[in-house]
Specification:
4 helices, 177 residues, mainly alpha, 79% helix
Length: 177
Amino acid sequence: MSDELDLELKRLQIETSKFELEAKRLELQSRPRSFFLSAISNPIVIAGAIAAMVTVSTGCISYVLSEHQKQLEEKKTDAQKRLEEQKAEAQIRLAQVNADSQRRLEILKTESSLIMDAVRTDNPDQAAVNLKFLIDAGLVSQSAPDLARYLDSRMPGSGKTLPRPPASPPLNPPRNR
C-alpha cells in the first residue's frame, strides 16, 4: 500500500504542478492587459499621446500651409512674368506705332516741301503743270488724291501760286579794284 500511496502522492503533485503552471500562464496572459489598461489610464501617458498628436497635427498643418504659400508665390511670379511680357510687347507696339507715325510725318513734310516748291512760280498754269508732274512721278503719293481733285476742278489761268523768292546776291561779291 505504501507504493500506492506514493504513487497517488506523486500523481497529486503532478496534478498540482499542472494547475500551478496553468495559473501562472493565465496570470501572465492577464498581466499585459492590465499593464495596457494601466498605461492607457495613466495621465502622463495620456498627456504624452495628446502632445504627440498635436505635434503631428501641427507638422501636417505647417506642411500644407507651406505648400499653399509655395503655390501662391509661383502663381504670383507667373503673373508678374506675364505682366512684364505684356508690358514689353506694348512698348514694342508703341515704338512701332511711333516709328510709323514719324515716318509718315517725314513723308508729309517732304511732300509739302515739294508742293511748296512746285507752286512757287508767278504763273498758275505752270504751278498746275509742276503739281501734275509731282503726281505722275509718284513723288506725292499721300497728297496725290487731294492734288488731283484740285487740278481737275481748277480753271485754266487760275489757281494757287507763291511768289518766287528774290534772287539772293552772291555770297562773295566781286571787289572793285
